Amino acid sequence: MDTRAVYDYLTGLQDRIIERMQSIDGMPFRTDSWDRPEGGGGISRLVEEGNVLERGGVNFSHVLGSKLPPSASAHRPELAGRPWEAMGVSLVLHPRNPYAPTVHMNVRFFVAQPIREGEQPVWWFGGGMDLTPYYGFDEDAAHFHRECQSALDPFGADYHPRFKAWCDEYFFLKHRGEPRGVGGVFFDDLGAQGEIDFERAFGLMRSVGDHFLTAYAPILERRKDAAYGERERDFQAYRRGRYVEFNLVFDRGTLFGLQSGGRTESILMSMPPIVKWRYDWTPEPGSAEAKLYERYLVPRDWAALAAVPA
Hints:
- Helices cover 40% and strands 24% of the residues.
- It is built from eleven helices and nine strands.
- It has helices spanning 3-25, 70-73, 138-152, 159-170, 198-210, 212-223, 230-249, 252-259, 264-267, 288-296, 302-305; strands at residues 30-35, 40-48, 53-65, 84-95, 102-112, 122-132, 172-173, 178-179, 183-190.
- The strands form two sheets. A seven-stranded antiparallel beta sheet has the order 1-2-3-4-5-6-9.
- A hairpin with a 6-residue loop joins strand 4 and strand 5.
- The radius of gyration is 19 Å and the shape is globular.
């Protein structure tokens, strides 16, 4: 188990993503290094009021603790009380243009150290990426999902359908009865049960991270200059409310960060800058806004759609 190799990969991934996003946006990201009193720290990279990104953050964190927080040990109670170490890259990009989708990506590594004689370290990888459009396009959803599939297929044909379904299930607002967006892939606890060795699990996580830019950058470049008006911005702000609701109520990463004493500014950088809520609002039938609900907020095999001739 080479934790240094994981650290080096993640910091390099953050640098690559920042370089590409700065080239698209044209504005530099702010760099903010921070230390965590309980152990570890991180590097937050953020842009606000950019030319393309209304808000975007790409964070690296490497934190350590003496006792596993409740959010991490709830589904693994046998690890409660163990010293732990976690590192990862997490990003959320909120473009200003309503026709350009919000995107989230996270790749992470976690290890719980033994506290009794005879115990072994328990480690796992997790991560994924998902796309949240406000005005959907078939070609964007198909491209994003096709890249997700390309990231996973070299490791076995069963990974993509399983991790896509996991994403659809995870990024679902139960109180709304609707998904957050068009999904992508999501996985967690990869390696915790010994079902895959460290090198292969690390390779899968790297492949997901490496495919992020090929999955998202072409979509952002295609949509960033589309004409829009106040109607589109208003609907974007309304749908961003769903993003906030999910992150504060359901997201395991947000809960883990807050419960483990992480840096609040970095944890909450995923929140969109302008959001609206309305009481009992529904889109006008037949409108572009209604199409989001009817076609895009419905789980479907987008990667297969990409193979169908236009």
